[in-house]
Automatic annotation (TrEMBL):
Belongs to the class-I aminoacyl-tRNA synthetase family. Keywords: Aminoacyl-tRNA synthetase, ATP-binding, Cytoplasm, Ligase, Nucleotide-binding, Protein biosynthesis, RNA-binding, tRNA-binding. It is an enzyme of class 6 (ligase). NCBIfam families: metG. It comes from Blattamonas nauphoetae. Residues 586-610 are annotated as: Disordered. InterPro entries: Anticodon_Met, Met-tRNA_synth, Met-tRNA_synth_2, Methionyl/Leucyl_tRNA_Synth, MetRS_core, NA-bd_OB-fold, Rossmann-like_a/b/a_fold, tRNA-bd_dom. It catalyses: tRNA(Met) + L-methionine + ATP = L-methionyl-tRNA(Met) + AMP + diphosphate. Its EC number is 6.1.1.10. Residues 589-604 have a biased composition (Low complexity). This is methionine--tRNA ligase.
Length: 795
């Protein structure tokens, strides 16, 4: 009988591809400094590359910068610098940024590179020679931020609520457009409508996720117009061959970078010194190839540039008689307050500040891990301090970091070696065991618990492997977390520290010795496999853990991710410093060192008591209550925002601005009594100030967002509090009469940091929203959140 019938061992892992893989990111505009959006696209490619190399598959990873075009030209002009000099500065900024976050492309291409210019000329000449390019005139809208020609249908009037000024915006990205009349060269995109449909039809996974492929298919089916491919008024770019009064459109120029790197128009590329590569101490050498082979296997892009990559780029490639890439992976956005993080939205945050909040020696690794674990390419992900804290504290400090400390700690492992278990534990039959037998084998030192952990160790790599080929970093990291959590459970159940203590008293007791060395060996094996599989996501921290366990470099591959590899008797390094200090419940101030634990007082840990008191105090400062919503309508300037009147009492109203679209529409909220917090510091969202925030939860699997469900009969003003919480002096739980009264500590305006501290304690458990494990209630009963899985966060 097996508990684990679908588990796979390494023997059944995906076969290696025949040729080296070629992966690309978009090339980044250099009109501003790199931000988290750029980082995310690159991290997906970097972690994929690192994973492939962990599987000993040769890879070429291409990234770079998009230097030409009106937008970059304008940025340089604003700084009073020549465009090329500006791009040189920005090139250095991007390279440094990549190095700091351990992103290591094999080539970091610039569109001002000589070989790229030659490739673009060749592309143009070939399209022209095929009569795919002809001279025409463009009269229409142009969006400078997107460097895109925008059809009339996609332009809308947007009124500024403050000034009343009306601006024309593109509905694609909600950015301003300008009217353009220009003589242009045009590309015969219309001619490629049927070939594009045929290509999509014949390649079911050419664009993923599937819903994006369907969107593109329907768009192409509805008809394609020819597109402009030159700009007359733009000087910063590559001139049209034989007609230098025109500049080649920045998107043709940019898209060609992918084939430049593969040697277009020739068929050989030498990666010599003139091509930049990133220098980083975590760069994996040995498995890079110097020449990527076209077609690219994976091209990663954000959803905002899908049209260019899923329609224009394949059409250009078909026109050039080149094969189309194998797979386009389209990811969603990182948002802040549910709006895309971008320079123009002004909601960027400084990555160095985030790293300071995380603190410790491996803050970069933790940040990479957070972005890759929290995101799912199919949806947008909202960035918050809450997410950062919960991942660092739970996954990294409590689970992974703690496990490393435990298996190397002198208190459990006084010999400071990989322990020597009985020989039968090292039997090769356990290397592939993924199915747990009903009973432990007779006459074996291994218990059923041991076998369960061995099976988990042996089956994790295949799960990570399957997820990574789909670029599902969330599932890949989830599989490693699951191994860590099973290992932690195993350690809790077996309490090796007790055995170590018993052994200290009775050093000759062979039975205890066997038990302890077996348990410790299993723990080390679990941490070794987890660390190896974490290398793509946290290259420095995971390598450091493997160093501590003295695992040789040649054993750090996916092939070694099974039980029985660590060499018994090897000396290990039992340092006590934590890999990831916890982010404390104080304001998220930058920290250098983890705080020292406080001494225990009166039999109870004083820091725990203080912590609870601090949490209760933070909660009491916030006014959580029921409100009623009326006049709900869409924000005039932001598609995703809803504006409502919030009734706080029979006489008091306020304004709510919420980013609940697409989960809720204005009509879904009209007249509803909902859970909220009403005394936060007001915040302006697209020109309208919001004073109230709704409480909702986002399902961590499906990404759907649901409002907390008030108890039956809830009334405006009902207070919300965690069970067992003292609301005010003389307050008794469930007392309706005093439940409406304010708490003694309630603040007039709660600052953001204070509120985030409270939010950090919110989690869904068994369909109940809880604050540090205590269900939220009103005097009328419990608040519910049905249909949201356990562990999801509410906010
Ligand atoms: N230069 C073009 C791409 C040319 S490729 C031939 C460009 N550059 S960009 O700098 O604006 O964006 C590059 C990538 O960053 C895109 O994939 C985009 O989706 C991604 N991101 C920018 N902001 C983002 C978020 N807030 N979240 C996630 N990724 C987003 O477009």
């Amino acid at each position: 009988m097996s508990e684990n019938t679908t588990a796979k061992s390494l023997a059944e892992i995906t076969p290696k591809p025949e040729k080296p893989l070629f992966i690309t990111t978009p090339i980044y505009y250099v009109n501003g400094d790199p931000h988290v959006g750029h980082l995310y696209t690159s991290l997906l490619a970097d972690s994929y590359t690192r994973f492939a190399r962990l599987r000993e598959i040769p890879m070429f990873f291409l990234s770079g910068i998009d230097e030409h075009g009106q937008k970059v030209g304008q940025s340089a002009a604003e700084k009073n610098i020549e465009p090329k000099a500006w791009c040189d500065i920005m090139n250095d900024n991007f390279l440094k940024f990549f190095e700091n976050v351990s992103i290591c492309p094999d080539r970091f291409i610039r569109t001002t590179d000589k070989d790229h210019e030659e490739a673009v000329f060749a592309v143009w000449n070939k399209l022209k020679a095929n009569d795919d390019i002809y001279k025409g005139k463009y009269e229409g809208w142009y969006c400078l931020s997107d460097e895109a020609f925008v059809p009339e249908l996609n332009v809308q009037d947007v009124t500024d609520p403050v000034t009343g000024k009306v601006t024309k915006m593109t509905i694609d990205s909600n950015r301003p457009v300008e009217w353009l009349v220009e003589e242009n060269y045009m590309f015969r995109l219309s001619k490629y409508q049927q070939p594009l449909l045929d290509w999509i039809d014949a390649n079911p996974t050419c664009i993923v996720p599937e819903f994006r492929r369907n969107e593109i298919y329907n768009f192409v089916k509805s008809g394609l117009n020819d597109i402009s491919v030159s700009r007359k008024s733009v000087k910063w770019g590559i001139p049209v061959p034989d007609d230098p009064s025109h500049t080649i459109y920045v998107w043709i120029d940019a898209l060609a970078n992918y084939i430049t790197a593969a040697g277009y128009p020739g068929d050989i590329v030498h990666l010599d010194e003139q091509h930049q590569i990133c220098q980083s101490k975590t760069k994996i050498t040995g498995l890079s190839v110097t020449k990527p082979v076209w077609p690219a296997d994976i091209q990663i892009v954000g959803k905002d540039i899908i049209k260019f990559h899923a329609i224009y780029w394949p059409a250009f490639l078909l026109a050039l008689n080149l094969p189309v890439y194998k797979k386009l992976v389209v990811h969603g956005w990182w948002t802040k307050d549910r709006m895309k993080i971008s320079k123009s939205a002004g909601n960027q945050f400084e990555i160095p500040d985030e790293l300071k909040i995380i603190g410790g020696p491996f803050a970069v690794d933790a940040f990479r891990y957070i972005l890759l674990k929290e995101s799912n390419i199919s949806i947008d992900c909202d960035y918050s301090l809450n997410v950062v804290k919960s991942i660092v504290n739970a996954d990294l400090a409590d689970q992974y970091g703690n496990l490393l400390l435990r298996c190397t700690a002198a208190a459990i492992n006084p010999a400071q070696i990989v322990p020597v278990p009985p020989p039968s534990v090292l039997d090769a039959k356990y290397h592939n065991l993924v199915e747990v037998p009903a009973e432990a084998p007779a006459n074996s030192p291994l218990t059923l618990e041991d076998l369960k952990l061995i099976a988990k160790i042996n089956s994790t790599a295949a799960l990570v492997d399957a997820a990574m080929w789909e670029l599902d970093t969330q599932a890949a990291i989830g599989a490693i977390c699951s191994l860590n959590s099973v290992t932690n459970g195993y350690v809790q159940t077996n309490e090796p520290w007790k055995l170590a203590k018993q052994l200290k008293d009775k050093p000759d007791n062979a039975e205890i010795q066997t038990k302890l060395s077996t348990i410790l060996y299993l723990m080390i094996e679990a941490v070794r496999v987890a660390s190896t599989l974490l290398l793509p996501f946290m290259p420095s921290a995971a390598a450091y853990s493997l160093d501590r366990l003295a695992i040789p470099a040649e054993n750090r591959t996916v092939q070694h991710c099974h039980f029985g590899v660590a060499q018994p008797g090897t000396k290990i390094d039992g340092k006590r410093d934590p890999l990831f200090p916890k982010i404390l419940e104080t304001e998220a101030a930058p920290k250098a060192q983890p705080a020292k634990p406080k001494p225990a007082k009166g039999g109870k840990n004083a820091s725990e008591e203080d912590k609870q008191a601090a949490l209760d105090q933070s909660f009491a400062m916030c006014k959580f209550q029921m409100i009623k919503l009326t006049d709900c309508k869409k924000h005039p300037d932001a598609d995703k925002l809803i504006v409502c009147t919030a009734h706080l009492s029979e006489t008091e109203t306020s304004t709510l601005v919420t980013g609940l679209i697409p989960h809720y529409q204005p009509e879904d909220l009209e007249g509803r009594v909902v859970c909220s917090v009403v005394n936060l510091k007001p915040k302006k969202m697209m020109g309208i100030e919001g004073h109230v925030m709704l409480l909702a939860a986002t399902d961590k699997v499906s990404g759907k967002c649901i409002l907390l469900q008030p108890p039956e009969g809830s009334q405006i003003g009902d207070r919300i509090y965690p069970t067992g919480f003292t609301l005010a002096e003389g307050w008794k739980e469930g007392d309706v009469a005093t439940a409406q009264k304010a708490t003694t500590q309630e603040a007039a305006e709660v600052p953001k940091g204070r509120f985030e501290k409270v939010v950090n304690g919110f989690k869904v458990e068994t369909e109940l929203p809880k604050f540090y494990g205590k269900p939220l209630v009103t005097s009328r009963g419990p608040i519910k959140i049905e249909g949201i899985c356990d562990g999801s966060e509410f906010h």
